[in-house]
Please model this.
Amino acid sequence: MFRFLIGKILYLVPTFLGITIIAFGFVRVLPGDPVLLMAGERGITPERHAELSAQLGFDKPIWAQYLDFLGRLMHGDLGNSLVTKKPVLTEFLALFPATVELGLMAILIATLIGVPVGVLAAIKRGSWFDQISMTGALIGFSMPIFWWGLLLIIFFSGILQWTPVSGRISLLYFFPPVTGFMLIDSLLSGQKGAFVSALSHLILPSVVLATIPLAVIARQTRSAMLEVMGEDYVRTARAKGMPTARVVGVHALRNAMIPVITTIGLQIGVLMAGAILTETIFSWPGIGKWMIDSISRRDYPVVQSGLLLIAALVMVVNLLVDLTYGLINPRIRHK
Model:
């Protein structure tokens, strides 16, 4: 298992290096001058512009700027925001819990609904449930997040007035953050109604963010279950007279979960991309909205380091998924 882990980690090194090149190059192709944006409406003289460009290292060749960026990165320095002057890592860690809370709730909704729906659709193949659920999954997968989010806001927040429109909690409640996770902090605050308010603010953006992963997980679970249900050991278990629930839950589902877990792990990247739009629509103060604001302000250190941190998170999740394979099926560790 240790050799399996080391091999996977070494595989991530060139991947991460390639991501640094992409992240560095991405912000450089964005139109606009960050020095002029820092100056704002006051304007700036050519002499002061040259001075600030030299201080920020923008006067160097691109390859020299990349090597400087890589050198700072090796020392754990992600740079400071050009706008707020705060370290990028500090801002990221302050906003990261909000995105994690939203993402965890979304993947929880997608998994708890998607897996059972996929299993039932496979068992009842060709039935009305199978056709309706898979058609719904296809529609959910094709649904643009920004359109779906606005539609739900209009219906649930505007017409029915069941859920808040934006934010993480009502302005009636205030307490210092302890963990950064609003659901936990609202419970720790002891304020009556704070947890319900935080949960009501979380439901709608979580549902919007979970829509595409839910559709993908449901379809993948159905496909994996149909493949496993035709195996000899499943037919043998049925021939022995085992209950259907035991055949499906013990013999079939466990082996079908390997591709499903792969799908769930890959959805983390989809969640991070979807969180950018979802957080913007619902004014959710997470790293997605932070990245959008930084792109519009040409805040180079925030954009490139933010992309790196998000990419590192996705790679760690994929590594954990690979390790989960080894726990579910030990034969994979020896391949």
